[in-house]
Amino acid sequence: MKHPHASAVVRAVAARAGAAVLVVWGAATCAFLALHLIPGDPVAAIVGSHALVGAEQREEIRHHYGLDRSPLIQYGAYLRRLATGELGDSYQVQQPVSSLLAGQIGPTAQLALWSSLVAVVLAATVTVLTSGRSRWPRRVSSAVELLVVSTPSFWLGIMLLTVFSFRLEWLPVSDSGDARSLVLPVITLALPIAAVLTQVMREGLLGALEQPFSLTARSRGLAEHTVRSRHALRHAALPALTLTGWSTGTLLGGAVVVENVFARPGLGRITLQAVSDRDLPVVQGVVALSAVVFVLVGAVVELLYVVVDPRLRRGTGVAAA
To answer: Measured between alpha carbons, how far is 261 from 185 in angstroms, rounded to an integer?
Structure first.
């Protein structure tokens, strides 16, 4: 006889896997359609705009890459390759896209993970410190958060470079291979995320502080900062956790700007170059990889829901399983 909680877990995993496949398929399809609707001849992007290539050679190139087939056949072949993990070869550097992405994903992942960690720690700290009964710290923090969110990432990065690299000479201007070169890019990406997270967490924390469990904790003689950090903050963490997962998945878009401002290697730089060169296999590979990262981050966030709020374990059957 099957355990009912085990069946619930199997159904949840199957639903999640199905949703993951749909997300990757949708992202890959949108990328395929968008890139094929862009005006221009892909062969011109492959050989270069100034190359002296005859019409016969252009047709050979078109046939080699399957560009002479109908869009529907190209789409089917693209999905079949994607299902087997085959991302094709780059038009520009003539290397497998999977090798290109594997060589660049490390610096971007390092940048994204550190940015997310710094954003979460900074948001939690500011939330706890500004959620007291006094309103002026909250107002000052809200004004700073609004300013940071309204500031474009490239301008924020340039300002940080101007102050800390060019004037004070505390940190390197570009990637020098050591940990110090990671500081300014991480701050540039983390500050806007931390500002949004702080606003969400503060709202949740203020609501949690009015709940009966907070009053009970105070009646036991706990200090106010203990009530906020140990009891109320956990209840405010769920919406912030969702937002953190979303922002972590979108860091690739921010990395495009930051990696170029700070001259760092990574997926952002090769994505920008691939879009400029209309290197379709690379762009499609980056989009597919981004979709997979979104799915994985979403799965991790759902697991963290259960860790943060034990009441959810009864709904998912995780505890019993």
So the answer is: 9
